[in-house]
Amino acid sequence: MAFEIIATGKAVPPHRVTNDDMAAKVDTNDEWIRSHTGIGARHFADADTACSDLALEAAKQALIMMTGDDREEALKEAALSLDMIVLASATTDYYGCPSTACLIQDRLGAKNAAAMDITAGCTGFIYGLETAAGLLGINPGRKRALVIGSEILSRVIDWSDRGSCVLFGDGSGAVILEKTDAPSQGPDRRGLVRSILGADGSGAQHLVIHRGGSRDPYKTDEVVAVSPHLAMNGRAVYTFAVKAVADTITALLEAEGIGIDSVARIVPHQANARIVQAAGKRLGIPDEKFFLNIEEYANTSAASIPIALDELNRSGGLKKGDLVMTIGFGGGLTYGGNIIIW
Ligand code: ACO
Q1: pLDDT per residue over 265-323, tens digit each?
Q2: 165 catalytic residue (yes or no)
Q3: Which of 122, 206, 229, 338 does the annotation list as catalytic?
Q4: For a surface tag, which of 30, 181, 290, 328 has the fewest beta carbons within 10 Å of its beta carbon?
């Protein structure tokens, strides 16, 4: 039994905001942003677009790739074949209830699918993939899962903090994970073969949306001076992230008993190119091994890895049998990685 990614999709809002556009609004400049992060642009959703809207589009793209048929009836039929929808996000449509996965389930007409959200910050997609594989594996009646990472981070940006507001973008990525008869061991193994999931909750306050939860709810008649936003301790997250990336790559290689030469591509969470380069340097891994598209999309949190997988997949950057490593880190604090035989 194997858990194979059989299709991918992505959706990014059309509104592209360059570093120069940001500089018109905030005291920053293209040179600082590029040299400190590798970011050149980000895409921001319009006011009417919520997390589920982007997620729905990414899901449709993945279902169309799966069937090779973009007709409405084919999409409906494909949606009925889903047994589960797992959506990772820090910027869901609603606070706590209902899950955004349930909104996708309804809008796709995926009547046979269970649906739930996962909160694991930027590591959400990695957690989501492992969760979906576990739930498919435990029940013979389940075969196919839709796993989505989707974010509208533009809605929780702190515009008064130039150190964080330049980092984020909006987007969504999706994969279809299918339980197949392919082997998961041996030379012909396929699919998701290993994951590492970890957390260090002692760093919870380094990436946090303070207001609106049960710890500090909005009060009746309260006038909110500042809209809810993500507060970040950039230095602390940076230090955590470099170590998390380096340690997770090392742990995955050791667990598999392989060297870095056996890895076709590493798809890291796209938070900051410097984090990836610093971890790569620490391990002696060449930059080319890492797939980076942060220049165009900035940090889309839980969406960044599935967006990158879709871009690699559609551009022919992944061949059947390639060993792909995903590496993530983020709010929680959380970290993790998957090994996928494409
Ligand atoms: N434009 C121009 N100057 C700036 C900007 C900006 N946008 N932001 C900060 N600066 C200035 C600072 O004011 C400071 O100036 P000073 O020396 O005169 O005081 C100088 O640049 C250096 O600032 P630092 O904050 O020390 O910059 P640093 O090199 O640490 O980089 C950064 C900051 C890019 C945020 C880095 O710390 C980082 O990448 N951290 C990790 C972020 C991350 O991965 N977040 C994940 C969040 S994902 C999630 O879970 C949603």
Answers
A1: 999 999 999 999 999 999 999 999 999 999 999 999 999 999 999 999 999 999 999 99
A2: no
A3: 122
A4: 181
What is the distance between the alpha carbons of residues 61 and 8, in angstroms, rounded to a whole number? 7
Nearest CA residue ID for atom 32, ligand 1: 234
Selecting among 19, 299, 313, 338, the annotated active-site residue is 299
Q: Where are the alpha helices (DSSP H) in 257-332?
A: 273-283, 294-297, 304-314
Residue with tokens 């002692």: 202
- State if residue 272 touches ligand 1 by the CB under 6 angstroms criterion: yes
b/e map 229-251, b = 16+ CB within 10 Å: bbebbeeebbebbbebbbbbbee
Report the pLDDT value the prediction gives residue 224, as an integer from 0 to 100: 87
- Position in ligand 1 atom list of the atom nearest CA 162: 7
* Average pLDDT rounded to a whole number, residues 60-73: 97
Residue nearest to atom 11 of ligand 1 (CA): 163
